[in-house]
Amino acid sequence: MSDSTSCKRVVSVGSMGLEGFLRLPPDPLGLVIFAHGAGSSHLSLRNNFVAEEFEKRAITILLFDLLTEEETQNHANVFDIKLLSMRMVDAIFWSRANSDIPALPVGLFGSSTGAAAALVAAARTPSDVITVVSRGGRPDLADDALPQVHAPVLLIAGRKDYPVVRLNEAAAERLTCTWKLEVVDGATHLFKESGALEQEVVSLAGAWFETHSTKAETRL
Q1: What does the longest C-alpha to C-alpha distance in the chain come to?
Q2: Cβ–Cβ contacts within 10 Å for residue 94, how many?
Q3: In this prediction, what percent of the chain has a pLDDT beyond 70?
Q4: Rounded to an integer, what distance in angstroms lies between the CA atom of residue 131 and that of residue 209?
Q5: What is the rounded CA–CA span in Å between residue 217 and residue 49?
Q6: Distance between the two ends of the chain, CA-based, in angstroms?
Q7: Contact 59, 30 (CB under 8 A)
Q8: SS3 195
Q9: Predicted TM-score (pTM) of this structure
Q10: Nearest 5°: CA angle at 131, between 164 and 171?
């Protein structure tokens, strides 16, 4: 897909008017809403790179700030999964009501604490979310919401990120939905190693979203 046929817009998301970017490719298969982790934002180069790669797969992307500027001053908010998940649910409803966004299957992509927020949001909106992907995430923080997630879940962790791999394994055992854990050899927590992010995370997550969006479209 060429840049000339895509559209990137600055948007104010949900009831809080949170800043973000909406990427609209032509003939999209689905919509993926990002839930970034601690210290990140819709301006993150890493998140925007992943968003661009997903867009090449004909996936509409909503990348927005989960917290207001004032809220980011309190570090405790980064770990307030209830608050973060409410923002994700708000974004889901906002996207459904936005006339600029076609009626598309919705997937959630979370990293770090954002992964827990995405899973809790999926549990709360089972009829709206078709799948969830966690990248280097803390799904364990979703706690009691884990057994309530009905959408298929893909967990991605770096092999060298030992604590997070163990936390992902423990969280996966509590899931009652279809799930898969992919452990990327040679990668650490943020997948900063050369080629790890591009070749593994984008490929695994992009293909997962593509597959489940296509399945959802077939059922519609």
Answers
A1: 45
A2: 22
A3: 88
A4: 7
A5: 26
A6: 25
A7: yes
A8: coil
A9: 0.92
A10: 30
For residue 78, the enclosing domain spans 3-219
Q: Is 58 helix (H, G, I), strand (E, B) or coil?
A: coil
Total tally of structural domains belonging to the chain: 1
Report whether 165 contacts 159 (CB < 8 A). yes
Angle between helices 81-97 and 113-124 (to 10 degrees): 60
Q: What is the dihedral of CA 93, 177, 66, 41, to 10 degrees?
A: -130
Spell 103-116 as b/e; 16+ CB within 10 A means b.
ebbbbbbbbbbbbb
Task: For 178-219, write each residue's pLDDT tens digit.
Answer: 999 999 887 776 666 666 666 778 899 999 999 999 877 655
Residues 6+ apart with CB under 8 A from 119: 108, 110, 132, 134, 139, 142, 145, 146, 149, 153
How far, in Å, are 41, 72, 87, 123 from residue 67 at the CA level?
9, 6, 8, 21
Residue of 62, 70, 79 lying closest to 14 (CA atoms): 62
CATH number at residue 180: 3.40.50.1820
